[in-house]
Structure formats: C-alpha cells, structure tokens
C-alpha cells in the first residue's frame, strides 16, 4: 500500500512540475552599489507564481565567482512575505562582499578590472505536498570590478 501511495505521489509531482510556471524564473539583472566597507551585488530575479495561492520561499542560496574563484557564497535571510498568487514578482537577492576581499582577489588574479562574473542561485520554494523544491538559476556577465 505504501508503494502505491508513493507512486501516486511521484506521478502527481511529475504533473505539477510539467505544469509549473516556476520554470520561467530567471536572473535578469545584477546591480552594484557601494558603501565604505561593502560592495553589494543586487541580483534581480523574475519569478512567476502560476498558482492562485501564495508560495513561500524557504531559502535562497548563492555563489558568486570570477576567474574560477569563489568570491562569496551563502544564503539570503528567509523572505517574510510569500510570492503572491498568479503574479510576476521581482525578488532582490543582496550579496555583500567586503572591499578588502575584492582587493585581494584583484591582486591574485591580476589583469583588467573588467571581469566575467558567474552567479549561481538556488531558490527553494514550498509547494503544496512538495516542500523544498529547488529552482537552480545561473547568470553570467561582464562587470567592472567596483573598487
């Protein structure tokens, strides 16, 4: 009986994944801001909630790298409000890097200040009957090293 229930659950999850508009999630911009101590990379993520009910985001983890070196990795604080039902939402993921960390990286890799950055994000959402669905995202682009 347990095997049958598991097969039904897995079939239901396949159908949910096929119909899910969450696959339309993408990183569409990365904006840099600076303060005295930090450089903040604000990743803007466009998310579509295809369901009529709100969806909770339980985790957003990130890794920012350049020249095959990890600059910073971590996760964002839990989002307080859920994604509204049947709407497009822009989720901002702030990624803070200390100035001295960027200076050390620039000295180590050398070269020009124009660097190719790669940002890997994983947004984890909680769907009905399927908690912890991870949506992997990747963004790559050239940005001047903000020093």
UniProtKB/TrEMBL annotation:
GO biological process, one term: response to desiccation
Occurrences of domain Water stress and hypersensitive response (ranges): 25-142
Gene Ontology CC annotations of this record: cytosol
InterPro entries referenced in this protein's UniProt entry, alphabetically: Lea14-like, LEA_2, WHy-dom
Stored Gene3D superfamilies: 2.60.40.1820
One Pfam entry name: LEA_2
Similarity section: Belongs to the LEA type 2 family.
PANTHER family, A to Z: DESICCATION-RELATED PROTEIN LEA14-RELATED, PTHR31459
Record's protein name: Water stress and hypersensitive response domain-containing protein
Species assigned in the record: Vitis rotundifolia
Upper classification of the organism: Eukaryota, Viridiplantae, Streptophyta, Embryophyta, Tracheophyta
